[in-house]
Amino acid sequence: MREAIQDSLTAGPLTISYGRRRILDGVTVGPLPPGSITALLGANGSGKSTLLRALAGLKAADGAISLGDIPLGALAPPERARYCAYMPQTLPPPIRMQTLETVLVAMRTDNRSRKSNHIAQALKILSDLGIASLAHHYLDELSGGQRQLAGLAQALARSPRVLLLDEPLSALDLRHQLEVMDLLRDETASRGMITIIVLHDLGVALRRSDQAILLAEGHVVSAGPVNQVVTPEHLRRAFGVEARIEISSDGRPMLLVDGVA
Ligand SMILES: Nc1ncnc2c1ncn2[C@@H]1O[C@H](COP(=O)(O)OP(=O)(O)O)[C@@H](O)[C@H]1O
Ligand SMILES: [Mg+2]
């Protein structure tokens, strides 16, 4: 437990601006322990992508970002990329490169094992994501959802300690959404990753994540265990909706949105 706390991700208070416009103000994150999934929630424009990009080191932020005693915020980008993998909100571009090849390229950054091992590992990741059959298809021949899965495979292939995913389910059908969330839960637990996922589906967040951070207009409305964050009062403040949490017949929480507040 002590080790888990020592290896946690902690950030802030962070201040992030675009030009003169302050986007995030005094936002703190964590400590988020290894093996946990955190949902990053909030209305459009609340600052989720900006915060994720700052944690990934792609957007300058005022304030400390650390992984245990490693000062992530002070590391140069290539060094930082050894610890953090980031998948942007935009789908991977439809380039003329085979899916398997793109996963191998992603792996090489910090994996020095033999090439045959690389290929076996890459195929295992594709198979876990249900896209092994696409290994030799070119990205520019895939559907948007299939490319999103390929992007996830690339992020997982980097073997990060911190996995940052911006709306990774946005192009996926219902079944793939569930499969991906279950896979992320398993991989997060077995690899001891710290996974942060921007999600729009609050029901998925409620059922599939451990913690949540709820943003509104660049501030944290609530952070902590997901069932203490996704509450009617917080949803009214962050999204302006009236919602209820009910216990469904399987004994788990379920979100019902009644309308605009
Ligand atoms: N590259 C940019 N330049 C200027 N403003 C930006 C840029 N990216 C985002 N913003 C602004 O920052 C705010 C937060 O955006 P973003 O982090 O993308 O929100 P979210 O991901 O929660 O929808 C928005 O008001 C948006 O207009
Ligand atoms: Mg966004």
TrEMBL record:
Q: Which PROSITE patterns match?
A: ABC_TRANSPORTER_1, ABC_TRANSPORTER_2
Asked whether the keyword ATP-binding is assigned, the reply is: yes
- The answer, when asked if ATP-binding is one of the entry's keywords, is yes
State the taxonomy lineage.
Answer: Bacteria, Pseudomonadati, Pseudomonadota, Alphaproteobacteria, Acetobacterales
One term of GO molecular function: ATP hydrolysis activity
Q: Which domain of life is it from?
A: Bacteria
Q: What is this protein called?
A: ABC transporter ATP-binding protein
SMART domains, sorted: AAA
Q: Which Pfam families match?
A: ABC_tran
Report the source organism.
Acetobacter nitrogenifigens DSM 23921 = NBRC 105050
Annotated ranges, domain ABC transporter: 9-242
- InterPro entries, sorted: AAA+_ATPase (IPR003593), ABC_transporter-like_ATP-bd (IPR003439), ABC_transporter-like_CS (IPR017871), P-loop_NTPase (IPR027417)
Q: Which UniProt keywords apply?
A: ATP-binding, Nucleotide-binding
